[in-house]
Amino acid sequence: MLNLVLGVLSGEFAKEREKVENRQTFLKLRRQQQLERELNGYVEWICKAEEVILAEERTTEEEKMHIIEARRRAAAKRKKLKNLGKSKSTDTEEEEGEEEDEDGLSRASYLKSKVRSKGACLQFWRAEKRLRFWIRHTVKTQGFYWFVIVLVFFNTMCTAVEHYGQPDWLT
């Protein structure tokens, strides 16, 4: 029964992780679209203003050239911003476990900064960080997943073998 519960929990956690990943992708896309809408609205407003300025008779050729050059730079910035928006990624894994106090500082980062400033503990914190990284990396591998599945299978087999009147060596 315990293995069935573990199986169901594993499935539910996988579904939740997928929901979170989909939500992050959606929010990233929505943020990028909002940024593009705001930028396009701003650019349209500037273009209209520049058209009015260019249409005025008192505008000199030098001012017209300056406006055209500014338009080229704005187009280059827009292209660069669009490429930058595509390459950004959000990583909230480290931020999830930290609580913030009323000053906006997380307690964990405050304590770590206080203790890390002491030279004697610096090596310990680095070793702990490397160990945490290694453990996180190991747990996320496909091999570890199958190792857990095999252990659950062996556990199920061991509990299924027990029966009434079994010999002492089996107990």
TrEMBL record:
Residue ranges, annotated region (Disordered): 77-103
Comp. bias regions, Acidic residues: 92-103
The keyword Repressor is assigned to this record: no
InterPro entries: VDCC_alpha-1_subunit
GO molecular function per UniProt: high voltage-gated calcium channel activity
Origin: domain of life: Eukaryota
One CC-aspect GO term: voltage-gated calcium channel complex
Keyword vocabulary terms for this entry: Glycoprotein, Ion channel, Ion transport, Membrane, Transmembrane, Transmembrane helix, Transport, Voltage-gated channel
Keyword check for Repeat: no
Membrane-spanning segments: 144-165
Biological processes, Gene Ontology terms: calcium ion import across plasma membrane; chemical synaptic transmission
Protein name: Ion transport domain-containing protein
